[in-house]
Amino acid sequence: MGGSLKYLALFLALILCSCGPGIFPNGNSPSPFGLALLLNGTSDYVNIAQSTMNLPSTFTVEAEVIMTSLPSFNGAIFFHGSGVAFIRLGINTTGQVTVAFQQGGCTVIVGTTNAVLVPNKNYHLAFTHTGAVYNTYINGVLDVGASGAMVTGAGCPVTPMFVGFDNVGGFFKGIIDEVRYSNTVRYSLGGFTPPSSPFTFDSSTIILFHADDGTSSGTVPSFNSLTSYFFSSNPAYLKSPFP
User: Fold this and answer.
1) Which of 41, 53, 122, 213 has its CA 20 to 30 A from that of 31?
2) Taking a C-beta distance cutoff of 8 angstroms, is the pair 150, 99 a contact?
3) Residue range 134-160: average pLDDT?
């Protein structure tokens, strides 16, 4: 009888470990991506207290995301800047990925993907820019609807930097993990395989946010050593459903 109970307990444990996202204590997650953020779409966001810096003219912004429902207002996944100079990656009310980039009042990139995302599905999103070309990738595949050309201006010193929010109230509702902001183009037009393990910090990384602290404030690796972050409200962490 004792042996039967032992195997029953093991069976139940396996089921519980594979049933999808669930609340775990700090860092105690079987996912290779550790923990992830669950944002409520109305008041949750992360404020990365980065010191004022010029927007890079060459960059990659990327993140692992799941929207739990379509946003009622354009939901921001990542935002860095102000009203006149900014980089933004988000999802609109119909589920399309939206990208925007403006430097010093010059021509604004506003791109919208042809592909439409659906709630409760994992996506790796990436937005790149260099020279006069910008590209958007969904799960490593180039989407020409949000890719094209523009002329860039001089960099503008800007702050703040948000995850899950922008400067006009665009809250994101869903799960965000592995946010990386780089001063290089990390992907080619031929596409790429989405990452299967957490990003590592390198010399081209501006900010790397793993969302693994399990706390309402902390530090993230950045180009100038460690940068503090804090939440607008008490964050919810869960086992990362990625990759």
Assistant:
1) 41
2) no
3) 80
